[in-house]
């Protein structure tokens, strides 16, 4: 079964950030070996914007960084029309207004797969709503 990585986890995992917990690292290492890690294609858009705005710095071009992600076995899930329609509707269910987070959460729900994140707002909403299988990447 696929596991969807939130953008923050993708960036932290690729950089070796210590915020990702040991339990999560082991699960993701195992998932990578099985080709069971995925990202929403919108995560690449988000990383590109974060780099453009100087919030994130990569050790290579954004294009090479994204290419390395997908050639290392991470599955990029496209944002089809169903996800694009469902994402902003999450605001009607108490989810915050960030369109990247909305799209990533809608992708996980649509695909029926767990989302790994460090984002407290997503973790809280998932816990309150019961609509999303979520894993706290800090563990």
Question: Could you write a compact summary of the structure shown?
Answer:
This protein is an alpha/beta fold and 139 residues long.
Number of helices: 7
Mean pLDDT: 94
The succession of helices and strands, N to C, reads EHHEHHEHHEHE
Question: Which class best fits the helix and strand makeup?
Answer: alpha/beta
Walk me through the structure.
The chain has 139 residues and is an alpha/beta fold. It has a single domain, classed as Rossmann fold (3-Layer(aba) Sandwich), CATH 3.40.50. Helix content is 54%, strand content 12%. The chain has seven helices and five strands; from the N terminus they run βααβααβααβαβ. The chain has helices at 7-15, 22-33, 41-52, 62-71, 81-89, 99-111, 120-129; strands spanning 3-5, 37-40, 75-77, 115-117, 134-136. The protein has a five-stranded parallel β-sheet with strand order 3-2-1-4-5. α5 crosses α6 (99-111). The longest helix has 13 residues, at 99-111. The two termini are 20 Å apart. The mean pLDDT is 94.
Topology:
Blueprint: E1 3-5, H1 7-15, H2 22-33, E2 37-40, H3 41-52, H4 62-71, E3 75-77, H5 81-89, H6 99-111, E4 115-117, H7 120-129, E5 134-136
Parallel strand pairs: 1-2, 1-4, 2-3, 4-5
Keywords:
7 helices, 5 strands, 5-stranded parallel β-sheet, Rossmann fold, alpha/beta, 139 residues
């Amino acid at each position: 079964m696929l596991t969807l990585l939130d953008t923050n986890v993708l960036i932290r995992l690729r950089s070796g950030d210590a915020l990702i917990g040991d339990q999560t690292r082991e699960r993701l290492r195992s998932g990578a070996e099985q080709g069971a890690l995925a990202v929403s294609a919108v995560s690449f858009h988000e990383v590109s914007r974060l780099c453009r705005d100087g919030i994130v710095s990569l050790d290579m071009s954004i294009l090479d960084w994204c290419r390395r992600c997908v050639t290392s076995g991470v599955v990029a899930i496209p944002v089809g029309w169903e996800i694009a329609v469902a994402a902003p509707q999450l605001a009607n269910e108490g989810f915050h207004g960030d369109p990247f987070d909305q799209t990533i959460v809608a992708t996980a729900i649509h695909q029926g797969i767990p989302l790994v994140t460090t984002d407290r707002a997503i973790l809280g909403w998932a816990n309150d709503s019961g609509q999303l299988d979520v894993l706290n990447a800090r563990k």
